Amino acid sequence: MDNDTIRTEQPYLSIVVPVYNEEGNLGPLMERLYPAVQGIGRPFEILFTNDGSRDRSLEILRRMVQQYPGVKVIEFNGNFGQHMAILAAFEMSRGEIVITLDADLQNPPEEIPRLVAEIEKGHDVVGTIRQKRQDSFFRKFASRIVNITTNRITGMQMQDYGCMLRAYHRYVVDNINRCRESTTFIPALAQTFASNPTEIQVGHAERVEGESKYSFYSLIRLNFDLMTGFSVVPLQIFALFGISTALFSLVFALFLLVRRFIVGAEVEGVFTLFAILFFFVGIIIFGIGIVGEYVGRIYQEVRKRPRYVVRQTYGFEE
Ligand code: UDP
Ligand code: MG
């Protein structure tokens, strides 16, 4: 296929890559990604979202727009996070099949044809399971929680939601584009629109350059977003727990009352009472925290701020 065809034809494949301070990875990524996608032999586009990088990433991406036909760049006006970066690219993507992948080469681009094949078989979402995952223990632990929660919420059974090498059918992406929530977790969101998802095993490499953009804190945030963003189960569990502890306390109070008449007044139990009290205070604070999570989200939605701001785009004009 010659370069002009790539430029003008309706793309069949859209590759979406979020980029945040990845100057060292972009070159090597492109050297592997471009031939892998070209090898499929269908018109394609590669959309990079520069998520407010403070290094030379944007400069490198702009050069790639000149150099590689089909490359497009969305430049954010600040750092809005990996998922917003992907959403922005989803909105501008035109391919029948949309594939997301990280810029850090932890996901091998050579696996893309296998993902495409699965969609062509009739699956609407293709997830990937990382074989021999090359991440820290803590990272893997956080992912397990994400996986368990997402499965509970969506009522589906997938093993690995954390791996961002994923393929989506156009209609799943269109549905995602209709969602306006300001915090999200794309694999879980996609799952709610999927009717025939599947998962395949792929290799996983260690991050070559730079370090993970996810801190301990942002991983906790992601888990909270996931739980409170997709279900009200935490609120319901908390309410149930409140009712049962209240009942239990009532029984306990009755028991103490009866004891008061049989044994007489006693003070030795004071510390037990304190222990119980602290336990409940802890639970109450936790509950307020959960309610706060929801209130915070409602606040965010009510403000209706734009979810991200695009400063400029490159390579879209035809
Ligand atoms: N990323 C982004 N914005 C952010 C954080 C990350 O666009 O605020 C991109 C990052 O450049 C990479 C991908 O999201 O392409 C995954 O990030 P990272 O490798 O740090 O996450 P991990 O592999 O540790 O889950
Ligand atoms: Mg990574």
Topology (SSEs and partners):
Blueprint: H1 3-8, E1 13-19, H2 23-38, E2 44-50, H3 57-67, E3 71-76, H4 82-92, E4 97-100, H5 112-120, E5 125-130, H6 137-154, E6 166-169, H7 170-178, H8 186-193, E7 198-202, H9 216-230, H10 233-262, H11 270-303, E8 310-314
What features would you describe in this structure?
- By secondary structure, the protein is an alpha/beta fold.
- The protein folds into two domains: 10-215 and 306-314, Spore Coat Polysaccharide Biosynthesis Protein SpsA, Chain A, CATH 3.90.550.10; 233-303.
- It has helices spanning 3-8, 23-38, 57-67, 82-92, 112-120, 137-154, 170-178, 186-193, 216-230, 233-262, 270-303, and strands spanning 13-19, 44-50, 71-76, 97-100, 125-130, 166-169, 198-202, 310-314.
- Helix 2 (23-38) runs parallel beside helix 3, helix 6 packs parallel to helix 9 (216-230) and helix 7 (170-178) packs across helix 8 (186-193).
- The relative contact order is 0.14.
- Uridine-5'-diphosphate binds at residues 18-20, 22, 51, 79, 81-82, 85, 102-104, 106, 212-214.
- The site of uridine-5'-diphosphate has 16 residues, from strand 1 and helix 4.
